[in-house]
């Protein structure tokens, strides 16, 4: 004879299981919610702008350390104050080596879409810019254990040029137009020359249920952008291509070109 007791227990067990399941987090749903709550952060810059490189190395990289990166959708746009001529050639504000490094960094973003990977590489290059050792940029491949082939092949052929044209279009489409670099945009709002206070703007714009802990220390409201006065912490877009100073970049000539084919 079949014991009927298990049959009576099944509905009870089912209720308990369903109740327990309801208390468990739903990883997929939680991940989607977290992604939707992320604040867009865009950095429009050029590789040899001293203020851009210092901002990236000394300030922006900090969000990977303090946890704010979890609340951010970061996008880097390496083009800055460059110009596209009628024939498609690109002129860079700080000369040919800036054209090279802008394209190298664009190729890195394309080759390694993972932010953790391409940011580490670009950080390495910009750190060398800060140290005035940027001609050794290709040492970053070995330092980070990255295969140089996808980047070197990209910047030496038409693909790199097309990537830069894409970033040119994105930069030129900014509303309001950028006037200098670094040009930092948080949640669609340009921060003008208050860009060093970008973390406070991110925390203010964050709509998630659990703000990053670092936001607890950024309770003061950012200054009104309309009152921000001009400082010397930016490289201006003069409407043309101007030379870098010898002190900042060590360049002494202006060259209009498509892509310099330098190896180091």
From TrEMBL:
Keywords: Glycoprotein, Signal. It comes from the Eukaryota. Residues 1-30 form the signal peptide. The keyword Transferase does not apply. InterPro entries: Interferon-induced_GILT, Thioredoxin-like_sf. PANTHER family: GAMMA INTERFERON INDUCIBLE LYSOSOMAL THIOL REDUCTASE FAMILY PROTEIN, EXPRESSED, GAMMA-INTERFERON INDUCIBLE LYSOSOMAL THIOL REDUCTASE GILT. Belongs to the GILT family. This is Gamma-interferon-inducible lysosomal thiol reductase.
